Amino acid sequence: MKYHRLNEIIELLQPEWQKEPDTNLLQLLSTLADEMRFAGELADLSDDALIYHLKMRNSAKDEMIPGLAKDHEDDFKTALLKARGFVS
């Protein structure tokens, strides 16, 4: 499972790093942490936070987080029926 996250981070970092080829990896990670308003040490930045930030970095402000979009229902009644198992 850890290899999947590593591959995902590399896949997401590569195009962002290519946009700024003169920066080193730590500078890029520091820039991303600043964009996320992460106040802690860079070593404490979680993989998940970095993955979600990279996924959402160039998206519209009102776009839904990818992990939540698959479960989103516009209609409350349909969402309630799905939650109770009446509709699939």
SSE order and pairing:
Blueprint: H1 2-19, H2 25-35, H3 47-56, H4 66-69, H5 76-83
Protein name: DUF1040 family protein
Organism: Moritella marina ATCC 15381
InterPro entries: DUF1040, YihD_sf
Task: Write out key terms for the chains shown.
88 residues; mainly alpha; elongated; DUF1040
Strand content: under 5%
- Principal-axis shape: elongated
Give the termini separation. 28 Å
Number of domains: 1
Q: How many helical stretches?
A: 5
Largest sheet: none
CATH architecture heading: Orthogonal Bundle
How large, in whole angstroms, is the Cα Rg?
17 Å
Top-tier CATH class = Mainly Alpha
Poorly predicted regions: none
As a percent range, the share of helical residues equals 55-70%
H/E order of the elements? HHHHH
What is the average of the pLDDT values? 86
How would you sum up this structure, described in words?
With about 90 residues, the chain is mainly α. The protein has one domain (about 1-85): Conserved Hypothetical Protein Ylqf, Chain: A, domain 2 (Orthogonal Bundle). About 60% of the residues lie in helices and about 0% in strands. The chain is elongated, with a radius of gyration of 17 Å. The model has no long low-confidence stretch (mean pLDDT about 85). It comes from Moritella marina ATCC 15381. This is DUF1040 family protein.
